[in-house]
Amino acid sequence: MTGQPSESSREFKRGLGLLDSTMIVIGSMIGSGIFIVSADIARTVGSAGNLLLVWLITGVITVIGALSYGELAGMMPHAGGQYVYLRESYNPLIGFLYGWTLFLVIQTGTIAAVAVAFSRFTSVLIPGLSENNILLQLFGLKISAAQLFAIASIIVLTYINLRGLREGKFVQNLFTSTKTAALLGLILLGILLGRNAPAIEANVSTFWQSTLTHVQDGKIVSVEQLSWWMLLAAIGTAMVGSLFSSDAWNNITFTAGEVINPKKNIPLSLLMGTGIVTLLYILANVSYILVLPVVGNPAAADVVGKGIQFATSDRVATAAATQIFGESAAVIMAVCIMISTFGCNNGLILAGARVYYAMAKDQLFFQQAGELNKHSVPGWALVAQGVWASVLCLSGTYNDLLNYVIFAVLIFYSLTIAGIFILRKKQPDAERPYKAFGYPIVPALYVLIATAICVDLLIYKPDYTWPGLGIVLLGIPVFFLWRPKQTVGMPSR
Description:
By secondary structure, the protein is mainly alpha-helical. The chain has a single domain, classed as Amino acid/polyamine transporter I (Up-down Bundle). It has helices at 18-29, 33-36, 38-45, 48-75, 82-89, 92-125, 145-162, 165-192, 197-205, 228-245, 251-254, 262-291, 303-306, 316-325, 329-361, 379-393, 398-426, 441-460, 462-482, and strands at residues 134-138, 141-144, 211-216, 219-225. The strands form two sheets. It has a two-stranded antiparallel ribbon. A two-stranded antiparallel ribbon has the order 3-4. A hairpin with a 2-residue loop joins strand 1 (134-138) and strand 2 (141-144). Helix 4 packs antiparallel against helix 12 and helix 7 (145-162) packs across helix 15 (329-361). The longest helix has 34 residues, at 92-125. The chain is globular and about 65 Å long. The chain starts with 17 loop residues before the first helix and ends in an 11-residue tail after the last helix. 56% of the residues are buried.
C-alpha cells in the first residue's frame, strides 16, 4: 500500500498563475501605510508639491527595482527568490545575511507592524481593543489588547497558510481585489465629489513651500524653512513612510517554486503589480490634497483645520473621508483598512516562509524549516515566522518597526540590483528570458538613489538605522557558527 510521501520527498505545487502572482505583489504592498504616512511626510516636507514629489520618487524607485528584479527572477526561478539572487551574485554569506535580517527584522517586523495597524483600526469598531487598554505588564512591558489582537491575527493567517497554497491564494485574491476596489473608490470620491475649494486654494498657493514642522507632545514647537539642501535631506527621511508603504513587492520572488511558468510570470507580475500600486498611491495623495489642506493646526476643531499634517492619529484617509461623508467615515475607513491590512499580512506570511525553506535546504537555517508538510507548504517555517512576528508585536510601536525595516530593506535591494552587474560578468551565457530595463543606467540609478537614502537615514535617523545595521552585521559570526562544511550552491529544484 502506498502511503503519504515523506516530508523530505515532498515538492512544492505550482498553483500560482499570472493573476495570482500579481495579486501577491499588489496585496503585499498595499497595507495601512497609504492611509496613514502622508501625515508624517507632510510635517517633514511641508507642502502639496513636496508631498506628491516624495510619492513620485518612491514610485519611480519601486518600479525601477521591480524591472531590474525581472532579470534575476527569469534567471533563477527558485524558491527563496532574493536570497538565491544574493547567494549566487556574491556568496553564501551575503545570502545568509539577507535571510537572517529578513527573519529578524524585515519580514517579521513588517508583519508585526501591519498586524498592529490592523488592531489599531479594529479598535475604531471595538474600543476595547485600543492600544490604551493595558491588560498586563510583563518584564516591564505594557501589553495592550491591541497587541494581543495583532498576535491573534498573525496566528489565524499562519493557520490558513498551513492548510496549503490553495487556501492562502484564495484569501490573497479575495482581500486584494476588495481593498484595491476600496482604495480606487476613495480616490474617485475625493477627486470627483470631495473637492474643497479653500483647501485647493491653500495647497496651490504654497505648492512648493518647503518647511519642517517640529512637534512635541502634540503641539507645534517650531516651523523651519528648508533650503534646497535641507529639503533633499527631508525628502530622504520622509521617504521612510512611502517606501514602507511600497515595500514587499519582491515577495513574489520568494514563491518562485510555486509559480506556473515563473520565468515569464514573475517578471510580468512585478511590473504590473508595482505599476498599479504606484499609480494608485499617487492618485490617493492627489485626492487627499483636493479635499484637505496640507498645512494644519493640531489644536483645530475639525478635519480641515487639522489638515493632512495633523489628521487625528495620522489617519489621513479617514480625515478625507470624514470631509466627504461626515462622522460615519471613521467606521467606513476602519473597515477598509482592516481588509487592507489583513490581506497584506496574508501575502507576507505566505511568501516569507519560502525564504527560510531555501536557507534550510542550504543548511543555513533550522533543518525543520526545509521540510514541507502534508499540504506541500513549509509548515515549520510558517510557525517559526509567526512566533517571532508575534514577539515583535510586543516590542515596539508601528513607527519603530517601520524605521528598522526600511533601512535594512534598502541595503539588500541595492546589493541585489548591483548583483545584476556581477552576474553579467560571472555568468555571461546564462539564460535571461528577460533583461533589466535600461541596463546599465537604470539599475545603476536605483543603486545610487537607494544608497543616498541609506546615508541620509544614518545621519538623520541614527536611533533606528545604526541598530538596524548592527542586526545585519551580527549575522556574520552567526553564519560562521552555522555554516555547513559542504559548499552551498544553486538548488536543483
